[in-house]
Amino acid sequence: MKIDSTSVHVTAPQTEVFGFLQDARNFSHLLPQDKISEWSATEDQCSFKVQGGITITLVQNGTADGNKVLMKSGDKSPFPFSLTIHVKESGNETEGFIAFDGEVNMFLKMMVEKPLTNLFNYMSTKLMEYYQK
Prior knowledge:
Alpha-D-Glucose-1,6-Bisphosphate, Chain A, domain 4
């Protein structure tokens, strides 16, 4: 299952946004605080429980081309997935979006596709809002 978030424009240089996203501790600024609990993070991974009791672990899996932050599911995640955060310079701004690729069966896809799409769109919007302060 593949999901791409909406693309957003961030009022900050690409190098700054890229650096922010490389530190998994910063993901706390992007997640809906009222829907997560048991947050823990280091520079290269984060873990949290989502509403409904599922634990998600994101582990850094490197970078690519200086404009992609690569993440993958950790051992506590309910299914294997990868998350690629794309950021590219666009004039005086940075344009970015989140691409998700998960190995889910059709039954699970029906249950998680809409909530995950909403989550990634929320995260993209929060990234944009973070730099508008």
